[in-house]
Amino acid sequence: MIIRKFVFTLMYCSLLFVCKAENGYELWLRYLPINDKTLIQKYRNNISGVLIISTSATIDIAKRELTTALNSLLRAQMVTTEKLDRNNLIVAGTPSANSLIKNAGLEPMLNQLDDEGFIIVNKIINTKKCIIITGNTDVAVLYGTFHFLRMIQTGQSLSSLQVVSAPHVKLRMLNHWDNLDRTVERGYAGSSIWNWHTLPGYIDPRYIDYARANASIGINGTVLTNVNANAVFLTPAYLQKVSALADVFRPYGIKVYLTARFSAPIEIGKLKTADPLDPQVQEWWKQKIQEIYREIPDFGGFLVKANSEGQPGPQDYKRTHTDGANMLADAIAPYNGIVIWRAFVYSNENPVDRHKQAYHDFVPLDGQFKSNVLLQVKNGAIDFMPREPFHPLFGAMPKTPLMMEFQVTQEYLGQGTTLAFLAPLFKETMESDTYSKGKGSTVAKVIDGSLDRHVLNGIAAVSNIGSDINWTGHPLSQANWYALGRLAWDHSLTSEKIAEEWLRMTFSSRDEFLKIMIPLMCESRETVVQYMNPLGLHHIMGTSHHYGPAPWVNTLSRPEWNPVYYHKADSAGIGFDRTATGSNALSQYFPEARKRWEDVSTCEEKNLLWFHHVPWTFKLRSGRTLWDELCYNYYTGASKVKQMQVSWKKMQPFVDSQRFNQIDMLFQVQYEEALWWRNACLLYFQTFSSMPIPSQYEKPDKTLEYYKSLRFPFAPGI
Ligand code: GCW
Known about the structure:
- The protein folds into three domains: 27-165, Chitobiase, domain 2 (2-Layer Sandwich), CATH 3.30.379.10; 171-496, TIM Barrel; 530-576 and 613-709, Alpha-d-glucuronidase, C-terminal Domain (Alpha-Beta Complex), CATH 3.90.1330.10.
- The longest helix is centred in the C-terminal third of the chain and has 33 residues, at 657-689.
- Helix 7 (205-216) links the parallel strand 7 and strand 8.
- It is built from 23 helices and 16 strands.
- 39% of the residues lie in helices and 10% in strands.
- The protein has helices spanning 2-22, 37-46, 57-73, 99-102, 107-112, 138-153, 205-216, 236-249, 264-267, 279-295, 321-332, 354-362, 423-431, 443-447, 478-489, 495-506, 511-532, 563-567, 591-598, 608-611, 626-649, 657-689, 704-709, and strands at residues 49-51, 79-81, 89-92, 118-125, 128-135, 162-165, 171-175, 221-223, 255-259, 301-304, 338-342, 373-378, 402-407, 458-462, 573-574, 614-615.
- By secondary structure, it is of the alpha/beta class.
- Bound molecules: 4-O-methyl-beta-D-glucopyranuronic acid.
């Protein structure tokens, strides 16, 4: 009887352990015991315990993280002490709080660091071997702690440690497009994790886990609310709720920001106008900001979408974007707050190529923004497409700090059912050369402030986080949240390195697993491009929900909301002519950058139809005609999804069954969606090319009419 009870308890515990650890909730912070016997022994020989002097909530978090992680990873009970009484202690803290660190001779290195960078080194202090994790502030120590744990989770050596690491950009932020009613615009992972109704009284433990996950990858800011903003968030009751979240995030080094609805003075302030030059409006914002800082003394600032897609803004009063941004900037400056103004603007009254509109509106304003304003620019000029050339604003506004806006949520990349590892996309943009100050003026250098000497700089991304147990819906999409944080910290990291780190921590460090999965992850976004938007095609997704293909849509009131606006297929060919014979959007790039794109024969084929309207019979480098190349891409892309699926099946021995099965099923969904994209697009474009799908390919099994008839009124994220 007792034995049975024991066995049952054991089974129950292990079940609990497996479920809890393997539903994906733990993200990359699973800290499962290291399996490799030699490795674990090596680590045990090098680590005996943790010496941390408690001085703040942040330092306590570092201490807890180190001990729980090491106890589990090394299957050993770590000593915690405040005395250097043995060898192989991890000594973590700032020099000001810990005299051992102060006297360890690290000053020259510390002086080179900002207040977030950290150092991890081996030292002998008072004849005792130890590992020091330090930085100039508590949060730097926390970042160092997470880095140190990442080294152990990824099997790195701890002898001769010489890690000195500082973030490449100051603001590393998530933008949540979360609404009051907990819907998430373009969210595919359930509802918003912010439960506004039960805040501020109830602090969901998930808020803490959110902060911890972000701190582990260096994210230091979060915009809690949708850029399509609601003024209610600025009312006293909601500010209290925001304040409760800020209290949770503060020890993790994360500041909160809100989106400011430009018409708030009218909607909640009872004023007649929101004109930024009106003294009453200015006073209203001053009072509001004072109220915010009373609640949240370290409030980060505002993110503003103005005069874009129907949002109110200064142009409603014939004022400029600078009038609007500077009014808020002046009001928030006394508190060291900032204003992040978005450059995502285009207007249906404007017949000019949408690609050109933001540049046209903002370049003349360069140099006119207050010093606490950043302009947040999407990576490309259209809208988070699977592939976009870099936005021509990068490099074109040297006097204004431009902040990068990426999209981690996969609005246009298959949403919640598709694997598209986005590090290669982020890197492709960051490594693009704007030539604004000659060769080597990369987007990365514009963004990190090094090109034009901006102290204020940052990278933001639209979050993919929701209430799903695994946070991101698709388990493999966690990697995109991770990649964003890691690249914002250090944009020189390679996609392979990021994929490897994430896979080791989130799944398995087995060679057989990594050998397949690193390339699979790194090629996944290119595969999506290939079966959705090959050769520079763009924005041919289903209108409004952006789920699946609908290149035929031409009935919406705003021209640039119709896919036909973007592909311009006709009997002569396909593609958007953005050269001098067309919209001439290319003229917005620096000559060296645009040179290769201008000529159809030198333009990289991956961007061909982005910049050119090309005849169906045009010969590409492969020797195939454009039509055949299009077929080749759609068919190859879809078959690559099949290959991913087959490869994933072989990963079963290395992955827990829950996540294995979920991903396995999602690959099947993705495969069916890839076939849908392939068939629907080719059947539709064939009505213009009048050319056959090459005979080696299986024929689409459904008609174009069938694909056109599909409707998704309840697709998520709208
Ligand atoms: O990508 C588009 C989305 C909108 C979004 C807009 C923006 C928040 O379809 O849902 O609105 O961009 O970035 O403002």
